[in-house]
């Protein structure tokens, strides 16, 4: 199935191309330096540091919703989507997409609260698109384990727009029902990426936050900033992660993870009611 590669970001859809010469001479001078880390595995020490931030409940409660602005919508389904006997989180995106790039930060932090990444690879978004070279991760060739949830990832294209992964009939079916045919998804966002399905219980058809918030930073700098509650980076990324955590709690019936009893989870779910 052909999917329109649109970016849904904080209530807007943007399609743009920017000449690479302009990108590499822009105010973000770190672009070429970041690109060399594409598909490089994240060191265990940095992965552990990010896990520690994810599990910092005081930080999460202090941030709460933060600057996240585009809350997922409930589907009112009566049957949770499961694979391997566990509620399943489906992500559809692409490495070139800057809105997918910023979304993966919140996803990784939220998912670390329910399991572990044993491999996670660095990635930057397209060098020729808006928010060029946004520092992020790719779920392609990464590895995640959890006793509570299953995770299906689909990175459809590389950050140079080459085909990477092709959706299965199952993935296309979920996308068709909960995006293309979902009346709660604005028409301008239908068929776009990023798309996250939280067990068919709620769906996120666009980015929560603006990629601009991490412009000019390296992965190490972003992770260091996450220790500062007042940082715009923390307000954005931890807020985004908290929103996604609440969705995972909802799809798992909030019964098997201590994180689901945290005040911020209840607060975010109350906003969505």
Structure notes:
Helix content is 34%, strand content 18%. The protein is an alpha+beta fold. It has one domain. Strand 4 and strand 5 (86-93) form a beta hairpin. The two termini are 33 Å apart.
Q: Key features?
A:
18% strand, 34% helix, 6-stranded mixed beta sheet, 9 helices, 10 strands, two-stranded antiparallel ribbon, alpha+beta
Q: Please give the largest β-sheet.
A: 6 strands, mixed
Which band does the percent of strand residues land in? 15-25%
What is the number of strand segments? 10
Distance between the termini: 33 Å
The level of helicity is 25-40%
Contiguous uncertain segments of 5+ residues: 1-29
The best one-word shape is: globular
DSSP helical segment count? 9
Summarize the structure.
34% of the residues lie in helices and 18% in strands. With 273 residues, it is α+β, with helices and mostly antiparallel strands.
Write the layout of secondary structure elements.
Elements: E1 8-9, E2 12-13, H1 20-24, H2 31-35, H3 44-54, H4 57-63, E3 73-74, E4 82-83, E5 86-93, H5 98-112, E6 116-124, E7 135-145, E8 150-155, H6 169-180, E9 195-198, E10 202-204, H7 219-225, H8 232-251, H9 263-272
Parallel strand pairs: 5-8
Antiparallel strand pairs: 1-2, 3-10, 4-5, 5-9, 6-7, 9-10
């Amino acid at each position: 199935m052909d999917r329109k590669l649109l970016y849904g970001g904080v209530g807007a859809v943007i399609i743009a191309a920017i000449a690479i010469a302009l990108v590499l001479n822009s105010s973000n001078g770190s672009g070429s330096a970041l690109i060399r880390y594409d598909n490089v595995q994240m060191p265990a020490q940095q992965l552990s540091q990010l896990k520690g931030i994810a599990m910092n409940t005081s930080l999460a409660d202090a941030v709460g919703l933060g600057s996240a602005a585009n809350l997922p919508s409930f589907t009112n389904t009566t049957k949770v989507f499961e694979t391997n006997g566990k509620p399943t989180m489906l992500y559809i995106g692409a490495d070139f997409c800057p809105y997918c790039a910023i979304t993966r930060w919140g996803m990784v932090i939220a998912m670390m609260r329910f399991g572990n990444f044993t491999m996670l690879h660095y990635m930057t978004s397209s060098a020729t698109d808006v928010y060029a070279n946004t520092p992020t991760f790719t779920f392609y060739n990464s590895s995640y384990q959890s006793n509570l949830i299953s995770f299906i990832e689909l990175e459809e294209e590389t950050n140079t727009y080459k085909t990477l992964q092709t959706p299965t009939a199952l993935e296309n079916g979920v996308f068709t029902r909960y995006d293309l045919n979902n009346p709660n998804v604005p028409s301008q966002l239908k068929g776009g990426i990023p798309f996250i399905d939280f067990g068919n219980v709620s769906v996120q058809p666009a980015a929560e936050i603006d990629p601009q918030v991490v412009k000019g930073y390296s992965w190490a700098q972003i992770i260091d900033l996450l220790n500062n509650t007042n940082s715009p980076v923390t307000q954005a990324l931890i807020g985004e992660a908290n929103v996604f955590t609440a969705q995972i709690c909802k799809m798992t019936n909030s019964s098997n993870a201590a994180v689901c009893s945290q005040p911020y989870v209840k607060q975010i779910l109350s906003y969505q009611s």
